[in-house]
Amino acid sequence: LVSRLRAAWLSGRTRPMEYRVAQLEALGRFLEEKQQDILDATAADMSKPPFEVELSEISICRSELNHTLNNLGTWMKDKHVEKNWATQLDSAFIRKDPYGVVLIIGPWNYPINLLLVPLIGAIAAGNCVVMKPSEISKNVERLVAETLPTYLDKDCFAVVTAGTEETTRLLENKFDYIFFTGSPSVGRIVMTAAAKHLTPVTLELGGKNPCYVSDTCDVKNVARRVAWGRFFNAGQTCVAPDYVLCSAEMQEKLLPALREAITEFYGPNPQESPDFARIVGDKHFQRVQALLRSGCVAIGGQTDAETRYIAPTVLVDVQQDDPIMQEEIFGPILPILTVASTNDAIAFINARERPLAIYVFSSCKQVVNQVLEQTSSGGFCANDTIMHMTLTSLPFGGIGKS
Amino acid sequence: NPYAGLVSHLRAAWLSGRTRPMEYRMAQLEALGRFLDEKKQDILDATAADMGKPSFEAYFTEILLCKNELNDTLNNLSHWMKDEHVDKNLVTQLDSAFIRKDPYGVVLIIAPWNYPIHLLLVPLIGAIAAGNCVVVKPSETSRNTERLVAEMLTCYLDNDCFAVVTAGVQETTRLLENKFDYIFFTGTSSVGRIVMTAAAKHLTPVTLELGGKNPCYVSDTCDVKNVARRVAWGRFFNAGQTCIAPDYVLCSVEMQEKLMPALREAITEFFGSNPQESPDFGRIVGDKQFRRIRALLCSGRVAIGGQTDEKERYIAPTVLADVLPSDPAMQEEIFGPILPIVVVANMDEAIDFINARPRPLAIYAFSCDSKVVKQVLERTSSGGFCGNDTLMHLTLTSLPFGGIGNSGLGKYHGKFTFDTFTHHRSCLHRNMGLETLNTLRYPPYSQQKLGLLTATFEIKRKGMCTLL
Known about the structure:
The complex is a heterodimer. By secondary structure, chain A is of the alpha/beta class. Chain A is built from 13 helices and 16 strands. The longest helix of chain B has 27 residues. Chain B is globular, with a radius of gyration of 26 Å.
């Protein structure tokens, strides 16, 4: 497979802009024509509400696609650069070359988005691509494996379905770039495999995204924005607020506001709401459920193993050593830890691995700037959650373990 | 872990925020400038002792090019450091959206021996400019320069934030067990693999400036005399110990005939009739390297040069003719003053020859016909490319310098060095109020809400009309 794609790449087939535009437009048709199949597959995999799928899987991909199609001509152009005395009469420019044959490994939580958005860029840049959708989101994996190749040039683009073993074998091959989205532990494995071939990588990983809520804020707005970010896709979002840091007084105010927001969103019994997703698999369900033994359940806490339902839950009096603070939650549980001050919150954050996102809620600009300046993270959003990810003009990625 | 204390000392300094203010970084950079000025003679002496580097060459590459990078950085640092505000969509119109230029933290720079000051300082300039704390490891192979850097560089810099470590292979392996926030390595591909594997344990991003065999295609339509001088200059500078030196020539048998006398003339013009007596020709850095390069001489036939002197580690500027792909000189990066010529029938064969091999740091093409140059550029892949000269693309700070595939990953020079050592952090600062703007996205979900939401924030394809 790899040598077939490499031969196609060496033939120069993916280089002309017209070719790339045609492939990208075909991706657009995939999103349109297979819209219902995507809704059905993601519903089957993790009961994703159609609204969430439309927003986070289809619409976002369409935006990236259109943004790329609108700008590809400009992006592809040679970029002429400033010259010095000795080179005044020369032509000095940066040529935008493809890498060659690239590998994209997608995760299961936004299985269309996190496969297609990298794919759009890889195709736009003129590469041949091997895609490996996640085997955990089984229905989407099948959809992608069976239908996506019919839209694309099979000589240059391929979908590989693989579990852990086969993915390890796949990684033995030499790729010219590897784009991986998943956990830090697998990220290490991918980078180590890439190192054997000196293959450059992009690793979109995860971590525990802290959410500091200062004492000066509109509690009601904070509660809605944090609840939205935490419970979207039943918490299975890499940039979801993972835990809250606030004063004891703020915790007192936040709880009723969070309770109100959750009821507003999902009704008095979220298990009956069509707008709340489920955990993707039994193993994951058990893992997340075990984290409930941390602090005290203040809101929610109910679970149903048969449907892999975990209620939108808020935990209070959580301690640093509790199970829920030892790993990325990736579920609909929001622990609250109390800190005495902004400085303590910053120290808490800096004592831990650098996360994909840091959130701060404060009406006070100085507080926001202080947290921004004294911490380090992939991205940062003040007074909301997740939204920084929706701007295509902002680079999205992590730092350190994220 | 012998280096744990050092790394945590630097990490504490970084967490204290000391390296963040622009004034601090400028002061450290200006101190580097003073190092280059005040220690100029020591640098010339050390590189002369290490590899017989002619002082002209040392001044140009180790001092002048470094000062260029330094001044470019000092001139532009405040601009580079600024938050970069970005385009917003309808939903975020009233927000502040920007890219914050954060340092990575504690970074490691491992430098090679061939341009031991330049390839240490230029990354260091960017690392400091970007606000990092830095551990620098100069090469133990260029022993005199290593000692100079270890003893003198630290006097100019803040020792709480910047450290020089002298280490051989063993100790470097121990050093790499530590967690760094970025690793910048210049050296061979095989060691590059080791560095990246070590970095992978900590998920540390890397820049690897490696090497390879840089092909130099000479078409039949060219000014042979100019080609000979430019190729000879690039090949024999620093006695061939240059990562982007033209490693081998590809040309037709007729061009080989024409090139030979022109190369002979150029070499004589540059180094005189006995290059061993020229003050302008370097030596090989060590006995091991000398023996390795000498062994490559049994490839093809020696058309020019070929003399060696083990005591001085002198290898004459040499051109080998009729070299075959299977010859020793074609099995590894030469990194010495030997230029093999491999005959090909035409440009297509040259391109196929290049594409059958690992992608090099640089590809050179000489032709009066710009279509030929364009074709080689379009149909090959390499770190960088230069038409009708050698090495020169490296001297423009506005061009990113780096490899691809076996020749490396990442790029630097000028602003690209600053960007290499900078974490581009996406920031969105929204309003605490204005909650009505957000209500469309909250459950309970409805088709109507979805329609409004996608209408407001989805990017549309330009030039398409929708008739309602």
